[in-house]
Amino acid sequence: MDAPLITTLIAVALVLVYIMAIVSAVEAIMKTRTSQGAVAWAISLLTLPYITVPLYLVFGRNKFDGYLEQRDEIERESLRLIQQTSGLIEQHIVPVSNDTPLHASLFNLARMPATSGNRVQLLVNGQQTFDSIEAGLSSAEKYILFQFYIIRDDDLGKRLCRLLADKARAGVQVFLLYDEVGSRKFPGTRPYKQLQMTGVKVAPFNTTQGRRNRFQLNFRNHRKIVVVDGKYAWIGGHNVGDEYLGLNRRIGHWRDTHTRVEGPAVLGAVLAFATDWRWATRTAMNIPWEFSGLKKGDSTVLVFPSDPASEYEEAGLMYHQAIVAATRRIWIASPYFVPDNGIVSALQLAALRGVDVRVLIPDEPDGPVVGMANWSYTRDLLPTGVKVYRYQGGFMHQKVLLMDDHIAGVGTANFDNRSFRLNFEITLLVHDPVFAAQVDEMLQADLRRSRQVSLEEIESKPVWYPLAMGVARLFSPML
């Protein structure tokens, strides 16, 4: 190739990179949800375009394109399904009111109604969770919806996949969704092939699908949903893997929480799965939409899905609403505690007005940067009276919220930027003093296995610690 031609091609490539950098910087200024992030991206793109343009393509956007383009169609489908079942569940739909955050702003964010007449069971470890799920799967007669962020090729994964395959052979419709990043090794496994051979409908939630998502590896579908026959649903923090049963020697004891719900609220879990299935496969599920109108319990439940395609940061607003509405206490357990400034301020103000604010995080966080960021936010919260506890009984992975004595939440959303802005999440919000008392008892047991952090402990850290905390905080939007 001629030297002048090579020079021309290089010059053209450089011009294209700078054009991409300018376009990306403009997009970052217009669409990045925090001013700090917008400034950081714009400066980096314009000064170091060769490095930051590829990084921006992968990590830069926090709006998930394509999913929104289908939202009208998906919502029409959801409306049709609600209308189809409304005769059965209409008596259980809770009217919107300002009495509790469950029925006011959160109702509008969730885009589906809260329902009464539900029975919710608290599952406080992996053994309880998967015993319950396996029993439910075994009882399936019509269909199974099965969605997890991680599905491993280990004893638990093989056992559940074998059960799903057996049900498919027996004529039960089985739909399985997995995240293409979290379960990236799953398609090459024997359980995966067994599922396909037996007629299980298997699909990845491919977030790189769509014209502008081709390089976007930053989004995740973090939901964990199991539904059997429209009668029972399981939502919570566990994935499918032996470590969630505490069987991984390196990780040790795994502390997690799940729920089993029975009643009209199951419809919310079905609709969340149906929306994801529509995106992943471009098809609608053909299942019998039959729901019992009989009362199953005394819990009012709002199934709260959140995603990066929505106009609002739904998961973050859910937590924020619970914090500002609390009058007696707000307890939060999360393995990742990297909140934004608005959430930090809400927690500080809650503590200053006399609310019992407690944050429970692992003593051994998942990575040093996350750990340093935890310490940074802890340092901000302690002077206002917020109590921070570090769980010492193994790795704590639960995502649990307890507000006052009547509202509790269990789900998949962590207390961090990724869950607030980048992940597809789902939370079960339960308005029931009896269930809240069970969550209280569970968290009290967790607190007894934890140590409370003091300002003196932070101040006694080595001299380099404040700098490390500050640096980690700079990266908090990406954690």
Structure notes:
The protein is α/β, with parallel strands linked by helices and 479 residues long. The protein folds into three domains: 3-60; 68-95 and 118-297, Endonuclease, Chain A, CATH 3.30.870; 314-478, Endonuclease, Chain A (2-Layer Sandwich). The chain is 43% helix and 20% strand. The protein has helices at 3-31, 35-47, 49-60, 71-89, 105-110, 126-138, 155-169, 190-197, 266-281, 314-325, 341-352, 368-381, 417-422, 433-448, 455-459, 465-474, and strands spanning 115-123, 143-148, 173-179, 201-205, 220-221, 225-228, 232-236, 254-255, 258-262, 299-306, 329-333, 337-338, 356-362, 387-391, 395-396, 400-403, 407-411, 415-416, 423-431, 450-452. It has a 16-stranded mixed sheet that branches. Helix 12 (368-381) links the parallel strand 13 (356-362) and strand 14 (387-391). The protein is globular. The protein starts with a helix and ends in a 5-residue tail after the last helix. The mean pLDDT is 84.
